[in-house]
Amino acid sequence: MILCGDEAALYLQATLQRVWAPLGQTPGIKADPGRNCTHFYGTLNLHTGGETLLCSPLMNAQVSALHLQQLLSEYPGVPLLLFWDRAPWHKGPAIRSVLSANPRLEIVWFPPASPELNPQEQVWKATREAVSHNHQYVKLPELAEAFESHLKTTAFPCSLLDKHDYHTLCMMSK
């Protein structure tokens, strides 16, 4: 199974996107002055377009290891190839421990500073456009629930495998 993972922070502050308004009338958007946020660990299944999610108040190596365990549970007995960026919380003893205990999980590191290569970035973009841009939520848990619901109920097709002719190569190797 080929997967791409990444993390995103969700703030209650509305991010603005294009809006319709009567000419000469600037639309008002309420903004939360606080910096409270929640973090999402998201992993895109490149075959199905489905998401595996973990919501957390923290983003660190221990939570990253917990998300890896979640992936292993979701795909039991299947070899997993995870494309991941080089974030500091993707390294350390907790991650090494999960990897050494689970040889069916292999990580391929994206090159430094190359988010455009990660299809999970497009998942975040689409979900922000659908849920968190110009939102009217007044409580972070409500916004986070809507964000999570969109991620769980939407398929995010990815052309990465087709772009590199993955399916043809797999058929040739059989």
Q: Structural class given helices, strands, pairing? A: alpha/beta
C-alpha termini separation? 16 Å
Trace the largest sheet across and list its strands.
Answer: 3-2-1-4-5
Second-tier CATH architecture? 2-Layer Sandwich
Q: Biggest sheet: strands, sense, closure? A: 5 strands, mixed
Helix residue percentage: 25-40%
Unreliably modeled segments: 166-174
- As a whole number of angstroms, the C-alpha radius of gyration is 18 Å
- Please report the first level of CATH classification, the CATH class: Alpha Beta
How many alpha or pi helices? Answer: 6
At the fold tier of CATH, the topology name is Nucleotidyltransferase, domain 5
Number of strands: 5
Order of helices and strands: EEEHEHEHHHH
Q: How would you describe the shape?
A: elongated
- Name the CATH superfamily assignment: Ribonuclease H-like superfamily/Ribonuclease H
Strand residue percentage? 15-25%
Number of domains: 1
Give the rounded overall mean pLDDT: 87
Structure commentary:
The protein has 174 residues and is an alpha/beta fold. Helices cover 36% and strands 20% of the residues. Strand 2 and strand 3 (51-56) form a beta hairpin. The longest helix is centred in the middle third of the chain and has 14 residues, at 61-74. It starts with a strand and ends with a helix.
